[in-house]
Amino acid sequence: MQTKIQTLPSKKNIALVAHDGKKAALKAWCLTHKNVLQTHHLFATGTTGHVIEKATGLSVEKLLSGPMGGDQQIGAKIAEHQIHMLVFFWDPLASQPHDPDVKALLRLAAVWNIPVACNEVTADLLIASPSISDEITRDLPDYQGYLATRLD
Ligand SMILES: O=C(CO)COP(=O)(O)O
């Protein structure tokens, strides 16, 4: 599929999500990277956002709680090109009642070619990347081309 290029501003929209078993890890990660995170616009699912705000003092735009639709809201923002990076500490050792939503969020992040970190090591690499602090370009899927093949 042909791709299109999108130029991203230096201030990125970063989505932060953690399952309950991983909230302490994400809270600690946000504290470690507070200086960088405060230069970006932060989104989070509801409970995660409250935890991060309380622990760090960072300002977070809070969506619905994940199981109540928050994962889907972040997925929709990704599809609308409003999220530039996703830090999603999902819990590999706990089943989730909204597992289809979790999969859908990770799937849309792959479809729309945004950087995703599912653990601290990867999140450290992403937040240190020049592509987070600088203006960059990225490939987008060619949605019109895709649509044309579907409508033939
Ligand atoms: O369930 C979540 C991600 O799948 C996160 O939701 P909360 O931030 O509301 O706990």
Automatic annotation (TrEMBL):
Gene Ontology cellular-component annotations: cytosol
Catalytic reactions of this protein: dihydroxyacetone phosphate = methylglyoxal + phosphate
E.C. number: 4.2.3.3
One MF annotation (Gene Ontology) recorded for this entry: methylglyoxal synthase activity
Residue positions binding substrate: 19, 23, 45-48, 65-66, 98
NCBIfam families: MGSA, PRK05234.1
Protein name: Methylglyoxal synthase
Organism of derivation: Pseudoalteromonas amylolytica
Gene symbol of the encoding locus: mgsA
